Amino acid sequence: MKKGIIIDKDGTLFHYGYVWGKTVSDAVFSGLSRLGLKGDALDRTAHKFEVCFGVDRNGNNYSNGILFRPDLMPLAVAKLVFISLSQGLNPLRVKKVVFDEINGIGNRITKELVNKEFPGIRELFMRLKENGYIIGIVTNDDEHSARFFLDYVKISEYVDFMRCNGKGAKKKPNPEAFNQFIKEFGLKAEDVAVVGDTKSDMDFARRAKAGYKIAVLTGSGDEKLLGRKADAIYPTILDINSDRTLFE
Predict the structure, then answer these.
(1) What span, in angstroms and rounded, lies between the C-alpha atoms of 184 and 28?
(2) CA quadruple 139, 140, 143, 145: dihedral positive or negative?
(3) Is the pTM here over 0.85, yes or no?
(4) CA-closest candidate to residue 162, choices 1, 12, 3, 8
(5) Mind listing the pLDDT tens digit for each residue in 9-35?
(6) Helix (H) or strand (E) segment spanning residue 93
(7) What beta strand segments (E) does the chain contain?
(8) Which three-class secondary structure state does DSSP give residue 6?
C-alpha cells in the first residue's frame, strides 16, 4: 500500500520565531522608522505591531497573529489602524510602508539561516523514506525561500512533491495542492498524513479528507485550538518519531 505525508514548512519544520522573529521585527522597525517614529514611541509601537503580526524580536510567537491566523486578518487590521491613529500615523501610509517591508522578508532568508542549526530534520526525512512514505511539502511561502531551506538542511533529495505560493495557486486551507499530490502519485486521501502548525493546516487536511492530521507547537503554538482539530499533537516535528500511527 502506498502512503504519503504532506508537511508544512514555516513553523513546522522549525520554530517560526527562531528563524523569522528578528526578520519580521526588523521589517516593522524599518517601516515605522521611515514613518518618523523614534525612541520609546518606536519601541512601544513596534512591539504592538509585532504581536499583531504574530512574532517578536525575541522569537516569541503569538497564536492570533496574522502570520498564523489569516482568518483573523480583519481584527488584526482594525488593531493596526487603532495603533497607527494613536501615534498620529496615517493608517493607509502605514499599510503601504510596513506591509511592503514585511512582504520583502523572503528575500532575506539566506541571511537568517546562516549559523542556525536544524538537528534531526534530515534524519527524520530519511526515516520517512525508509518507511515507504512519498513526501510532499506544501507551504504558503514563495518557491525561492522554500527551495533554499530544503537545500540548506539537505532534505531536497527526499521531497517528491512541493507546492508553494505562486501565481494562480490556491493557498491553504484550499485542498487543491493535496488533490494534486494524491493524483500525481496514485494515492488515496485516507492514506495521507498532514503535518502542520496552524489552524489553516488542519483545515486543509480536513477539507482534503486526509487520513491523519498531526499538529506541532512550533508555529502558532495554539495547543487548545490545534488539539481540537488534530488527531495527534506534538511539541516539535522531531517528536513525530514516536508516533505509532506513522511508524507502525
Answers:
(1) 41
(2) negative
(3) yes
(4) 8
(5) 999 999 999 988 988 999 999 999 999
(6) helix 91-103
(7) 3-7, 133-142, 161-165, 192-196, 212-216, 232-234
(8) strand
